[in-house]
Amino acid sequence: MGFSLSIVIPVYNEAGKIRNDITNLSAYLTKNRISSEIIISDDGSTDDTIKIASGTSIDESIPLSVISTGEHSGKGHAIRQGIIQSIGDVVLCMDSGNTVKLDAISKGLEMILNGDYQIVLGSRHLPKSIINIPLAFHRRLVSILFRIFIKLLFPSMWIFSDTQCGFKMYEGNIARKLYDESKIDGFLFDIEILKKVKKQKITIYELPIEWTCDRDSRLTISSTIWEVLRDSLKLKIN
To answer: For residue 42, what are the domain limits?
Structure first.
């Protein structure tokens, strides 16, 4: 028997956050009686992320899995592994760090289970979105330049206000098919998936969210720029 919701959290050296991520999620899911499983997909952490996640106690009605290949392959790879293992009717991918107010889960879940949409994307850039703590100025500037670059390179992305938000909810079978066929392991995995979604004419809704920036980020601008250029070329060729 499947669960209503599978939640996949990709992590890389999140020992200081992962226990709170899991316990806060568990409390929300239990309070709202959402039948769920939580999958922590590790991207080769070198700290105690796996140990802490595995040792976190939550409500016994919520299965908790911690998976890892032991290699640092990229966020896209970690999410792919988690989604392929998922069994939920709906799959949610969300970032570590409690950045998105959890009421977005119930809103997105209702839309998908009611058949209104097949994918719900969280967005920080809609008029009704609420930003409690924004990105630091230099990261905000890089984010703006990235959005312009991606939309010029891939015109089909113009319809999306926020391709990189760490809150994306899918019909389960659609998520597993999309990610099983995906190739990008790094930062641009979101763009690859959205390009596939556009070609298949899957119904999508962008959901305004309440968002708080986690300024303890594992991304570095120099490595991210290189990764974006490399993967942009891969996607353009394909």
So the answer is: 5-237
